[in-house]
C-alpha cells in the first residue's frame, strides 16, 4: 500500500534509470498490423524500425507490465475499469481509480476528465503524472549469429507455421507467424521519476512487474509458446536533482544484475536526495 495522500506535494527528487537487455527465450512476435503485409510474406509480420530491424515498442512492454501488475494486485474490479477503446470486438479496458495511493495510477499516470467506466459513470479530478517511462527496445544485431541466420526464413526473423483445425470437418486452416528467434537480445531502458518521498516505494513495484513478465509472455502467441523473455545485465543508476541542476555525480546502484539481485538491494533506501 502506497503512503501517498491527496496532500502529497510533487517536486523532482531524482530519476532511477534502469537499463540492460531483454533475452528472447522463445520466439517473440509483436505484430505490425495488416497494413505492412507483403506478398509472399508471413500473415502476421513483426513490427520493424526504419532500418528493417525488429524492435520492442515501449508501449508494448509498458502495457504488458501494467496488465500483469493490475491482475496481481487484484485491481480488475469493473467499478475501477475504464475503456481505452470501445470498438466492438476490440474493447480495451484498463484500471483507473481516484485513490491517491493507487500505485498503478502513480506508476503509469492518470488523466483527468470524463472516463467511460465499465460500471457506472463519472469523471476523474485526480490527474497525476506518470512516473514510469519505457523506451523502445532496439534489437542488438550481434545477437543474431551467423549460425542462426543459416536457419532463419529471413535474414533476421523466422516464420512459424500454425494450423487451426475445424472441430466438425477436421479441415486445417494454416497461418504463418513471423517471430524474432530465440536467442535474440534487445536493449531496454526505463526511467522512474521520483517526485516525492513516497515515490521511492514504486521502484519495488516496477521490479515486481518485470519479474511477473519473466514467467508470462510478451507479445502475441504467448499461450502457444511465443514471447518468453528474460531480463539480464541490468544496470541501475540514480541521478538526484543535483545531477541536473549542478552537474553532480550519478550513483551506480547495480551493474550486470538480474531482477532478483535488484530486488535484494532494496532500491528505495538507496535513492538519496
Major sheet: arrangement of strands: 7-11-1-12-13
Gap from first CA to last CA? 23 Å
Global morphology: globular
The helix content is: 10-25%
What is the CA-based Rg, rounded?
21 Å
Mean pLDDT: 89
- Counted by DSSP, the helix tally is 6
Tally the beta strands. Answer: 13
Kindly estimate the percentage of residues that lie in beta strands according to DSSP.
25-35%
Low-confidence stretches: none
What does this structure look like?
- The protein is of the alpha+beta class and 273 residues long.
- The protein has a domain at 14-59 and 129-270.
- 19% of the residues lie in helices and 28% in strands.
- It contains 6 helices and 13 strands.
- The protein has helices at 58-72, 103-108, 146-150, 202-214, 241-245, 259-265; strands at 14-24, 55-56, 81-85, 92-95, 113-114, 123-124, 132-134, 137-138, 158-165, 172-179, 185-194, 229-240, 251-257.
- The strands form 5 sheets. A 5-stranded antiparallel beta sheet has the order 7-11-1-12-13.
- A hairpin with a 6-residue loop joins strand 3 (81-85) and strand 4.
- Helix 4 (202-214) packs antiparallel against helix 6 (259-265).
- The longest helix has 15 residues, at 58-72.
- The protein starts with 13 loop residues before the first strand and ends in an 8-residue tail after the last helix.
- 30% of the residues are buried.
- The model has no long low-confidence stretch (mean pLDDT 89).
What descriptors fit this protein?
273 residues; alpha+beta; two-stranded antiparallel ribbon; 13 strands; 19% helix; 28% strand
Amino acid at each position: 500500500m502506497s503512503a501517498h495522500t491527496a496532500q502529497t506535494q510533487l517536486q523532482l527528487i531524482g530519476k532511477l534509470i534502469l537499463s540492460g537487455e531483454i533475452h528472447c527465450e522463445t520466439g517473440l512476435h509483436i505484430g505490425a498490423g495488416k497494413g505492412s503485409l507483403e506478398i509472399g510474406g508471413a500473415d502476421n509480420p513483426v513490427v520493424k524500425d526504419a532500418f528493417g530491424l525488429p524492435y520492442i515498442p515501449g508501449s508494448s512492454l509498458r502495457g504488458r507490465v501494467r496488465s500483469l501488475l493490475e491482475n496481481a494486485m487484484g485491481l480488475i474490479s469493473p467499478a475501477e475499469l475504464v475503456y481505452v477503446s470501445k470498438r466492438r470486438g476490440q474493447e480495451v479496458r484498463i484500471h483507473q481509480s481516484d485513490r491517491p495511493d493507487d500505485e498503478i495510477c502513480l506508476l503509469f499516470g492518470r488523466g483527468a476528465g470524463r472516463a467511460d467506466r465499465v460500471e457506472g459513470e463519472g469523471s476523474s479530478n485526480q490527474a497525476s503524472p506518470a512516473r514510469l517511462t519505457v523506451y523502445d527496445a532496439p534489437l542488438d544485431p550481434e545477437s543474431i549469429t551467423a549460425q542462426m541466420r543459416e536457419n532463419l526464413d529471413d535474414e533476421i526473423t523466422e516464420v512459424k507455421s500454425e494450423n487451426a483445425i475445424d472441430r466438425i470437418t477436421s479441415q486445417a486452416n494454416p497461418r504463418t507467424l513471423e517471430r524474432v528467434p530465440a536467442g535474440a537480445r534487445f536493449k531496454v531502458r526505463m526511467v522512474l521519476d521520483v517526485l516525492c518521498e513516497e515515490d521511492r516505494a514504486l521502484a519495488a513495484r516496477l521490479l515486481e512487474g518485470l519479474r511477473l513478465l519473466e514467467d508470462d509472455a510478451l507479445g502475441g502467441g504467448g499461450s502457444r509458446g511465443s514471447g518468453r523473455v528474460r531480463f539480464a545485465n541490468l544496470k541501475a543508476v540514480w541521478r538526484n536533482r543535483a545531477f541536473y541542476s549542478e552537474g553532480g555525480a550519478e550513483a551506480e546502484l547495480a551493474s550486470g544484475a538480474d531482477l532478483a539481485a535488484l530486488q535484494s538491494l532494496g532500491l528505495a533506501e538507496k535513492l538519496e536526495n
